[in-house]
Structures are given as structure tokens and as C-alpha cells.
Amino acid sequence: MGDGPLTLARYLAGMSTASPSPHLTRRRLLRGLLGGGLAAGALGGAGWAQAARFGTVRESRRLPGLQAPLRVAFLTDLHYGLYVFAGRVRAWVDAANAARPDLILLGGDFLDTRAGADPAPLLTELARLRAPLGVYGVWGNHDYGSFGQEEVGQDWPAHRQNLTAAFARAGIAVLRNTGQAVRPDLWVGGVDDFICGQPDAAAALSGAGERATLLLSHNPDLLPELPGPVGLVLCGHTHGGQIRLPLLGAPVVPSRYGQRYAMGWVTGAYGTPAYVSRGLGTSGLPFRNLCEPELTLLTLLPG
């Protein structure tokens, strides 16, 4: 973008709404906000405080094939290890348990650490999650960074396998292109990360039969590529843009589809409904603005 600091105005002037490099774009946005003099406001103490708070978003929807109501707690984008530590995770777990959900789903980006970092404090907190139908999750792109995929010489597939086993010991089944019947009328599937893994939604849903279907995908960019209709897809990854500005909204969303899947209720292929959570943690910088972290509680009703 030429010489000189990357200000917000210069960033927005050259920004496209759909970028093939979402990670670089988010970093550039945060640099732009800082260079534009907004650090004292959106990215100063107020931004830190907004990142530290979280709210509970309650939504309800009918789910075809469901035979009885279902309460689901959805937590995603914890980003433990860089700016988020055990105390904040503890508060999220307490809030989820207090809602007494039937099922708890975790949307990936658990970890923001280097390969070899000890996940025990995170797993100690997540092991306290309680739901009669179980706790299920998927990997996100930051998890792959924590596997050591980007580090030369790391045996990252083995590290991924070891972490999958560690999560299982904590009571969390990580679904990687697989699924499970958690109730006679309900199938929960989960896909590998869209950016760093090899997602296969058809495999994740292959055993569903006539059951209602819930599909976990860390990244909503999977939605246009669904192999067929799904009852409901739950996603994270975008953080709602993390930094939202008055009137403008989120200048950048880390998605190849720009604002289309920023947050909230969206629609995928075959008319599939999906919910994109703003998530709980942060990446890039530990700030949020006008984009409160959320724990999502879904009441699903027979369709």
C-alpha cells in the first residue's frame, strides 16, 4: 500500500469485501486501527474491557426430524494461551453449566499456543462441562497452528492425535469428519477445519439416516459447499469481525465471502440454516469493539 503508516482510512480505501488471505487481512485491519489513532478508544482500555466481558445469546429454532425439545450450549473460539487463561475459561464453563443444556458443542480454535505448550489448564476447566448428551467439538485453524503444522520438523499429525486423546480424557469428543447419534432422533456431525484440514461434510453426516442433523464446522465458508441439506450448521471463526465500527460495521471479516457469514443466522447451500457465533476469545490483538463475546444457548424444537 505504499510508504508510510497503514491508517484506517488508507486500509479501507484499498480493502476488498472478500479476501483470499483472511489472516493477513485481520492483522492489517488491527494495524490500521492502531495507525489511525483509534487505539485510545476502540483498541485501548475500552477494547480490552469489551473483550473481557461476554454475554449469553438465546436463540430458538425448529429442527426437522427432532422428536423432543433440545437445549444446546455452543461455545467457540476460546483462543486459550495467548490472551485467554484459565480464569476466563472457568467463567465460560460456569455460565454454560448454569444453563443446564442437554448437549454442549464446541466450535474449535480452542488453542492459541505453540506446539508443545501444556493444554492441561484449559482441559481442567473444559472437563467441568456437564450435559447429559455429552460434549462434542471440532478443530479450528488456530488449533492446527498449535499442532505445529506450520513449524518445520514438527510431527504435527501425531500431536493432533495426542491432543484428540487428551480432549477425550477430559470428556470432549472431537469430531473430525465423523458423527454420532446422541439421541435416537438426533445426529451430531463435525468436520475438519476448512482452512488447514480436509473437511468432509458427507462423511460427517453419513450415519444420520432419518434423524435430525446438527453439523459443526469451525469455519462458515463451508456453507456453500454442503453436499446436501442439513438441519442446522453451527460455526465460529469470524468473531463477528471482532472490531466493528459505528455505521460501518465490521471493516473486515475473515471469510472469502466478506460480510455474508459475519455473524448470526445465515443460509448455506440447499437452504440450510446456520448460526455463526461471535465466539468468546480474540485473535490478532486482545480487543473487541461493538462485538461482544458470546455464549450461545439454542432451544431447538421439533420441526
UniProtKB/TrEMBL annotation:
InterPro entries: Calcineurin-like_PHP, Metallo-depent_PP-like, Metallophosphoesterase_sf, TAT_signal. Residues 70-239 form the Calcineurin-like phosphoesterase domain. SUPFAM superfamilies: Metallo-dependent phosphatases (SSF56300). The keyword Metal-binding applies. Keywords: Hydrolase, Metal-binding. CDD domains: MPP_YkuE_C (cd07385). PANTHER family: PHOSPHODIESTERASE YAEI, TRANSMEMBRANE PROTEIN WITH METALLOPHOSPHOESTERASE DOMAIN-RELATED. This is Calcineurin-like phosphoesterase domain-containing protein. It comes from Deinococcus carri.
